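Per your request, structure below.
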């Protein structure tokens, strides 16, 4: 009984184990890689069954209590080892075979496809839905062939609403008919050949092309894909996007105000011209750089709207002139005007016959531009300064041509405006020199490389020294002493005259203070200080002068401020308030370089200048040109009538001095007495209490 119960329990355990083995075996071999492992396990189990059989026959197991019963051993051997092993081996081998042939994947794919088709209904229905839902125009076309199998046309089998809209024909008109006659633009554009090509090669066609349809030119993005003996064609109207792109491109390459090409486009064309001139020695071109004269004044006085309109007028003149020009460009590209910005224009004269043509065009443009422009009831007059560069210079970069044309234009401005100048190498050298000087000047300010020289001012009546004019010098570390003529203008342009001038004012006051203290007999000695327009506009000027005078312990009466006549040419800035403040401090004002061409007698009247300095050019010409003596005489009388004292500049000869004395001039300054002196040399005059010879 005990044995029977044991047998039943044992059999149950074995059966459960075998079932579990099968199930876990199935799970285990789901991964294809485990198939081989299952084969090995199966073989192992069969081997174990064999070993068990041998062990049983050798009565080895009988000593172990559980295996006393031979049925137990049989069950283990038969069920576990032989059956389990065979199952494992079988499953493993099937798994290997299945994964090797890939049947499983196909089955899976098939199943998915079948499911999809079931979900979506029939494929025809699917196709219809896709075509109808597309936002592009879609047509399914079938080739129409002749007896020799050549494609003649296409028949439309299916089309959507968007295709009807884009083609302007309803599907009832087009369906099952030859399509080409409904698409005139497409036939014209050779699309039939493209479609045939898609069928023959099986390669898709994709292109954006312009089609003229029902009198309108539109852009379509067209895609054609082979489908049986025909095509699926989809197309979208992209005209708006194309137009927008064209507009953007135009805006990027043109000036918004005048519509002329801008610097980018001009530079690009110029680069092409450079390339061409390299390939072809016969090919010549020239660039004109135009800048309007006095444009800023027009803009400031008449307003920006009139200024803008003037720029538009000038652009139109450039366009028309270049179109009509007698010196025709020999290429299709033609001459090109462009606006660089502000009142700066450039013109590319393309493929000209000789370089003289550039001058002819410049003269013609100048004539046109200088004729009066009537804008909003105003008669606006302007002129242009033009710089010319020709391809003779063998340039590599368009930027260099524009730069040199600009330099030549600048030269035209400098030499009197309303003219043209042709660029030459000397100008280039000057530009390079100027650029270097600019760099060095910035350093000079940082390193305080300036000093003051002093030129005596002498009383004509007594021959005594009454004061000095302080004159700036740049002590260059390599080039030595540099005179103001070479750098003052540049410091003004660079806007660094103010810090330099501040230093000069302080230095002059300090020097005068030291000398008056050291030589009390010269307590009435005075210094003339030059102030340029920018310095006068410096809001800190008045307090700076006050401070400098106070620090030096001198009287404001011992300082005189010289302002050149040219400062007042452009009367856009009112200098009277600052000049009045200077005078209120007790400082005298002198009108410098009087008579240099901008005589503002009216200004002499409105400001109460204390001194008038007659320019050196009058004095030097006085002896050889009779009129000049008469002019000097008039100036002196005029000045005296207005309560001004007169200083003659640039007195170099005894004769000049005699003449000035005869004309009742008060003071003189010039090489006859002394050149501007270093402080030590000037001081020597004070020590010696030097007296210059008065005129005979
Ligand atoms: P400026 O105020 O007319 O100075 C007189 C110039 O004439 C000086 O030139 C002087 O050396 C020169 N000169 C004087 N007598 C004679 C003469 O008999 N014959 C000849 N040929 N020349 C004579 P400089 O020192 O070269 O100064 C040139 C200009 O630079 C000055 O003209 C003045 O406008 C400006 N400048 C000089 N120093 C300063 C300064 O500290 N600040 C400002 N803002 N300008 C200055
Ligand atoms: Ca001066
Ligand atoms: Ca002067």
């Amino acid at each position: 009984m005990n044995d029977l119960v044991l047998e039943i329990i044992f059999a149950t355990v074995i059966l459960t184990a075998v079932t579990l083995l099968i199930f876990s075996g199935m799970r285990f071999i789901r991964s294809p890689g485990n198939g081989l492992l299952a084969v090995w396990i199966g073989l192992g189990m069969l081997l174990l069954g064999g070993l068990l059989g041998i062990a049983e026959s050798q009565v080895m197991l009988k000593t172990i209590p559980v295996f006393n019963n031979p049925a137990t051993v049989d069950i283990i051997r038969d069920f576990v080892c032989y059956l389990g092993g065979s199952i494992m081996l079988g499953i493993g081998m099937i798994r290997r075979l299945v994964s090797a042939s890939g049947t499983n994947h196909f089955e899976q794919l098939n199943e998915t496809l079948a499911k999809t088709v079931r979900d979506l209904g029939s494929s025809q229905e699917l196709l219809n839905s896709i075509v109808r839902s597309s936002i592009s125009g879609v047509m399914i076309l079938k080739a129409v062939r002749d007896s020799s199998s050549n494609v003649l046309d296409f028949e439309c089998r299916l089309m959507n609403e968007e295709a009807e809209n884009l083609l302007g024909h309803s599907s009832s008109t087009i369906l099952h008919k030859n399509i080409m006659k409904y698409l005139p633009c497409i036939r014209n554009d050779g699309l039939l050949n493209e479609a045939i090509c898609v069928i023959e090669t099986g390669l898709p066609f994709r292109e954006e092309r312009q089609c003229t349809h029902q009198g309108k030119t539109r852009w379509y993005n067209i895609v054609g894909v082979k489908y049986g003996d025909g095509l699926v064609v989809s197309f979208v109207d992209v005209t708006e996007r194309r137009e927008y792109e064209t507009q953007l491109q135009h805006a990027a390459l043109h000036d918004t105000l005048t519509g002329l090409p801008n610097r980018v486009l001009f530079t690009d064309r110029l680069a092409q011209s450079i390339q061409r001139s390299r390939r072809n020695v016969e090919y010549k071109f020239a660039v004109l750089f135009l800048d309007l004269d006095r444009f800023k004044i027009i803009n400031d006085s008449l307003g920006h709207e009139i200024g803008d309109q003037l720029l538009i007028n000038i652009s139109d003149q450039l366009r028309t002139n270049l179109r009509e020009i007698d010196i025709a460009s020999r290429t299709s590209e033609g001459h090109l005007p462009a606006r660089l910005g502000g009142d700066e224009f450039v013109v590319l004269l393309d493929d000209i016959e000789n370089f003289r043509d550039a001058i002819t065009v410049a003269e013609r443009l100048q004539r046109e531009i200088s004729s009066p422009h009537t804008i909003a009831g105003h008669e606006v007059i302007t002129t242009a300064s033009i710089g010319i560069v020709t391809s003779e210079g063998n340039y590599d970069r368009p930027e260099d041509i524009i730069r040199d044309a600009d330099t030549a234009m600048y030269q035209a401005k400098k030499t009197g405006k309303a003219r043209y100048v042709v660029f030459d190498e000397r100008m280039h050298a000057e530009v390079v020199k100027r650029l270097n000087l600019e760099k060095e000047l910035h350093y000079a300010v940082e390193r305080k490389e300036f000093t003051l020289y002093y030129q005596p001012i002498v009383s004509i009546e007594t021959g005594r020294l009454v004061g000095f004019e302080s004159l700036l010098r740049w002590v260059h570390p390599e080039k030595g002493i540099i005179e103001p003529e070479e750098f003052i203008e540049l410091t003004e342009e660079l806007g660094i005259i103010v810090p330099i001038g501040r230093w000069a004012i302080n230095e002059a006051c300090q020097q005068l203070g030291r000398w008056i203290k050291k030589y009390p007999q010269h307590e009435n000695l005075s210094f003339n200080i030059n102030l340029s327009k920018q310095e006068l506009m410096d809001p800190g000027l008045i307090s700076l002068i006050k401070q400098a005078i106070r620090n030096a312990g001198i009287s404001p009466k011992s300082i005189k401020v010289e302002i050149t006549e040219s400062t007042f040419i452009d009367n856009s800035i009112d200098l009277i308030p600052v000049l009045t403040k200077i005078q209120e401090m007790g400082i005298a004002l002198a009108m410098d370089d009087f008579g240099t061409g901008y005589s503002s007698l009216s200004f002499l009247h409105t400001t109460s200048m204390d001194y008038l300095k007659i320019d050196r050019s009058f004095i030097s010409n006085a002896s050889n040109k009779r009129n000049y003596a008469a002019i000097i005489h008039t100036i002196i009388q005029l000045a005296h009538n207005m309560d001004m004292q007169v200083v003659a500049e640039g007195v170099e000869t005894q004769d000049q001095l005699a003449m000035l004395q005869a004309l009742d001039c008060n003071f003189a300054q010039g090489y006859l007495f002394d050149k501007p002196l270093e402080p030590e040399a000037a001081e020597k005059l004070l020590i010696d209490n030097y007296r210059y010879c008065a005129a005979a």
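Residues 70-101 form the longest helix (32 residues).

Regards,
D.
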